[in-house]
Design a protein that fits this description.
By secondary structure, the chain is an alpha/beta fold. The protein has one domain (28-314): Rossmann fold (3-Layer(aba) Sandwich). The chain has 8 helices and 12 strands. Strand 2 and strand 3 (88-93) form a beta hairpin. Helix 4 packs across helix 5. The radius of gyration is 18 Å and the shape is globular. It starts with a helix and ends with a helix. This is Putative feruloyl esterase A. It comes from Lasiodiplodia theobromae. Pfam families: Lipase_3. GO terms for molecular function: hydrolase activity.
């Protein structure tokens, strides 16, 4: 029954992938990104993609997986990896990949925000019940796993990343790491709204714009799918991949809910009110990310399964 349901889900995703709104050429919303920042976006899109793999024998960039995160009660997964060449510790969270994850996604009640490691006052802060419960279930484990690596590699930088559901986990993790005196830089891809306006302000206060990058793509519907009318608000700072995956096609946006970036195009796709998962959500910076036909194989093994290569062009997943 589960296999049948997943097969139906894959077919539904495939059927809606071609229902994207074209991005009309218009005045650029902000400055395009540097080659250096673009390369970082590609790097962490690879790590975010790898988090979808049930087994990742060859992590991106020659990194070594030092700890696997897996809480079966909340179906929350991810990994901690060490890249000795870059002198970096990366923690990546898996996004939505099965029916249990959809249960997490749909638990959209805003609940009081409390989380391991966070001691700073966050008055009136509320967060997505499903995302917060999922993060809190692995927070202590994740913090300990990173501290363990830092004990042997105190000069290494720590980076947090994730796509979709995993992006919201990464944003929540950022606050717990900062509160635990672990400086981090965070890159999220296709992140849904995760908390209310007070929580978004708290994120902006705790994590400066140089340390938190919220990347969106074209008309990706997932960043739009939980509406502001339900009390939610994005935190800063958005970087919008409007066009092809080049530095000139990615723009820095201003504010928490910029109207001239991802919010400027309807995210037609699989979700409530016809907004949600679509082609733009499943490919970031030319990296297959969260594709149900791929499952992280591209990032972990260097090439996708044969079926994916034949379907990418047909489904519009080139960028």
């Amino acid at each position: 029954m589960l296999f049948r349901s997943l097969r139906v889900f894959i077919l539904a995703v495939c059927s809606c992938l071609s229902v994207g709104s074209p991005i009309a050429k218009r005045k650029t919303p902000g400055p395009s990104v540097s080659n250096e920042l673009f390369a970082k976006f590609v790097r962490y899109a690879d790590f975010s993609s790898a988090a979808y793999a049930s087994d990742c024998p060859n992590p991106p960039f020659g990194a070594t997986v030092t700890h696997r995160i897996n809480n079966p009660d909340t179906d929350t997964q991810g990994f901690v990896a060490r890249d000795d060449t870059a002198k970096e510790i990366v923690i990546a969270f898996r996004g939505t990949s099965n029916l249990a994850d959809f249960g997490t996604d749909f638990s959209q009640k805003l609940i009081p925000y409390t989380s391991p490691g966070v001691t700073a006052a966050c008055d009136d802060c509320t967060a997505h019940e499903g995302f917060l419960t999922a993060w809190n279930s692995v927070a202590n484990e994740s913090i300990l796993a990173v501290r363990d690596q830092l004990s042997s590699n105190p000069s290494y930088a720590v980076t947090v990343t994730g796509h979709s559901l995993g992006a919201s986990l990464a944003a929540l993790a950022t606050l717990s790491f900062i509160g635990s005196d672990i400086p981090v830089t965070t890159y999220t891809f296709g992140q849904p709204r995760t908390g209310n306006a007070a929580w978004a302000d708290f994120v902006d206060q705790q994590a400066p714009s140089s340390k938190l990058f919220r990347v969106t793509h074209a008309n990706d519907g997932v960043p739009q799918t939980i509406p502001t009318s339900d009390g939610y608000k994005h935190h800063s700072t958005e970087y919008w991949q409007r066009d092809a995956a080049t530095p000139l096609g990615v723009f820095q946006c201003s504010g928490q809910e910029p109207s001239d970036c991802n919010n400027s195009v309807r995210g037609t796709g699989l979700g409530a009110h016809g907004i949600g998962i679509n082609a733009a959500h499943l490919k970031y910076l030319s990296v297959s990310t969260g594709n149900p036909l791929d499952g992280g194989a591209t990032a972990c093994k260097g090439k996708p399964p044969g079926i994916l290569g034949g379907l990418e062009g047909f489904l519009g997943l080139e960028d």
